[in-house]
Design a protein that fits this description.
The N terminus is likely disordered. This protein has 284 residues and is an alpha+beta fold. The chain is built from 4 helices and 17 strands.
């Protein structure tokens, strides 16, 4: 694994920087391309075999699942229970219910029994999908038993949350490193923006081979509130050309726990506070 260090030592002219930030903040025009094999945003999947194949990927990969209870906006987290072989195959093959781990944070488990519908959200590579289910009860081993979804919906692929622009000259203590495979040496990059859903960055030196969509990376953020760093898993959504043919990459975070979601929100809030201090200073 090679290391990609992101911090701002290279100063771009003001006009150039402003144009680059606008480009990095633009909507991901190609961000739905990864869903093409399954369907575009809004596609409803009702074929029983396709639903089973997708849920099997979700279970075998132990992929994180975001859970929304009723009309609530609070995100809880879980994952499907590992397949335990029994007579007639594992539970998913019966297509009668889902088994998932208790919700995180735990207070979600108390609210679970009070709502009449539950929305699950998860990623299969770059494709974000949603399913409506209901709570059926507890299994013998204390797993949550949910109804088997009759359809899956391909959701919008855009990064969540407001994107906070990063001016590294005002945030010298902010450093990022990104690890991924198939790169021979460390590359310094410029960080453009961060949101609760992901970030955008540009390598200062052109990579020998551009990062492709679906490339999985691990982002390590070191700053005032995380002096020892915090690692966030992510996946490359797309890229677009910048100055002199260099490319900027958009990354979506693959957050797998409530604790990590909270830490990312703290980072975004910290960046917003620094931007407000910058504006206050410039107005003096």
């Amino acid at each position: 694994m090679a290391l990609l260090s992101i911090f701002g030592k290279k100063k771009a002219p003001a006009a150039e920087a402003k144009g680059n930030q606008a480009a990095a903040a633009a909507p991901e025009k190609g961000s739905d391309e990864g869903a093409a094999a399954i369907g575009q945003a809004g596609t409803q999947i009702t074929d029983a075999d396709r639903i089973y194949a997708i849920l099997l990927q979700l279970m075998e990969g132990q992929l994180p699942i975001q859970v929304f209870l009723g009309d609530g906006l609070i995100q809880y987290y879980t994952c499907m229970a590992a397949p335990v072989q029994a007579e007639g195959g594992h539970y998913l093959q019966q297509r009668k219910h889902l088994l998932v781990a208790p919700l995180e944070p735990p207070k979600g488990n108390e609210k679970l029994v009070t709502v009449d519908r539950i929305r699950l959200r998860f990623f299969i590579e770059r494709t974000m999908m949603e399913a409506q289910v209901t709570f059926l009860g507890l299994s013998e081993d204390k797993k949550l038993q949910l109804s088997y979804p009759q359809q899956l919906i391909v959701a919008s692929q855009q990064r969540a949350g407001v994107r906070v622009q990063v001016d590294i000259e005002w945030m010298p203590q902010l450093q990022l490193t990104v690890k991924y495979a198939d790169i021979p040496a460390a590359v310094k990059c410029r960080l453009f923006n961060v949101s609760a859903g992901g970030l955008a960055f540009q390598p200062y030196l052109a990579l020998k081979a551009p990062l492709q969509p679906d490339t999985k990376i691990a982002v390590n953020v070191t700053y005032e509130l995380a002096p020892k760093g915090m690692v966030i898993q992510g996946i490359v959504i797309d890229s677009f050309p910048m100055d002199e043919g260099e490319r900027c990459y958009r990354v979506r975070f693959m957050i797998d726990s409530y604790d990590m979601s909270r830490k990312v929100e703290e980072l975004v809030a910290w960046l917003q506070r620094h931007n407000l201090r910058k504006r206050s200073h410039l107005l003096k």
